[in-house]
Amino acid sequence: DIQMTQSPSTLSASVGDRVTITCRASQSISSWLAWYQQKPGKAPKLLIYKASSLESGVPSRFSGSGSGTEFTLTISSLQPDDFATYYCQQYNSFLWTFGQGTKVEIK
Amino acid sequence: EVQLVESGGGLVQPGGSLRLSCAASGFTFSSYSMNWVRQAPGKGLEWVSYISSSSSTIYYADSVKGRFTISRDNAKNSLYLQMNSLRDEDTAVYYCARIDWNYVADYWGQGTLVTVSS
Fold first, then answer.
1. CA-CA distance, B117 to B88, in Å (whole number)?
2. pLDDT at A103 over 90
3. What's residue A106's pLDDT?
4. Which of A38, A93, A96, B79 is least surrounded, with the fewest CB atoms within 10 Å of its CB?
5. Residue B109 pLDDT > 90, yes or no?
6. Which neighbouring-strand residues pair with B99?
7. Is the CB of B94 inside 8 Å of chain A's CB atoms?
8. What is the DSSP string of A11-59?
């Protein structure tokens, strides 16, 4: 199975900060990587697919990059609505795996 | 509007069974593959099972293989997860999710809580 490792596990930031979350795959997954945002008690929301493609309706302050085994999610200017947990997910095969999550907290 | 509504969760004893349902609306259900994804309390997301649009291809996570069965009824716009031999570690919120043309989950249900406890 492909293992996904996110860092950091928790991130404290302020409104307006630039935030970067890293996700590493245990083997190459090309660009088959998605990012989701999840708020407490809610279902995950798709933000980014194919490593860098922005899902329709998602603000442009979110961006993704990377390929192979190393990927990043960047929020260019953190907004109050962005405090949440973020997950990366590989879909190189039908047997999906998720990273353990990164909680973005208010500093 | 795309909607996915899970039901069937509840409290069950270890070794028991439960059948989850996911009612789909607002899109052509028979054209989309579907997944079940779960989340244990306070934990991360775990993929559980995949079914193709025609049910011809099915996959399971190792943690549920041999105990869970995914199925769908395209005439009823419904997805199912039959869960047998339930264990404490199966306690989680179970989400159904639609897989879009980019092979990712673009719509998710609100989830249904399964609690396995004696």
1. 6
2. yes
3. 87
4. A93
5. yes
6. B33, B105
7. no
8. EEE-TT--EEEEEEESS--TT-EEEEEE-TTS--EEEEETTTEEPTT--
Environment class of residue A81 by beta-carbon count within 10 Å: exposed (0-12), middle (13-18) or buried (19+)? exposed
Q: How many CB atoms lie within 10 A of CB B7?
A: 13
Q: B109: burial class by Cβ within 10 Å (0-12, 13-18, 19+)? A: buried
> Cα distance from A44 to chain B (closest Cα, Å)?
7
Residue from A48, A41, A38, A32 nearest A100 by CA: A38
Q: Label residue A81 by pLDDT band (50, 70, 90).
A: very high
Average of per-residue pLDDT across B79-94: 98
Question: Is residue B48 within 8 Å of residue B37, measured between CB atoms?
Answer: yes
Q: Tell if the CB–CB gap between B45 and A87 is shorter than 8 Å.
A: yes
Phi, then psi, of B88 in degrees rounded to 5 = -55, -40
Give the integer Cα–Cα distance in Å for A57 and A47. Answer: 9
- Model confidence at A67, pLDDT cuts 50, 70, 90, reads very high
Peptide bond between residue A40 and the one before it cis (omega within 30 degrees of 0): no
Contacts of A89 in chain B (CB under 8 A): 45, 104
B17 min Cα distance to partner chain A (Å): 24
pLDDT greater than 90 at residue B114: yes
For residue B2, give the nearest of B25, B21, B36 by alpha carbon: B25
Residue B101 touches chain A, beta carbons under 8 Å: no
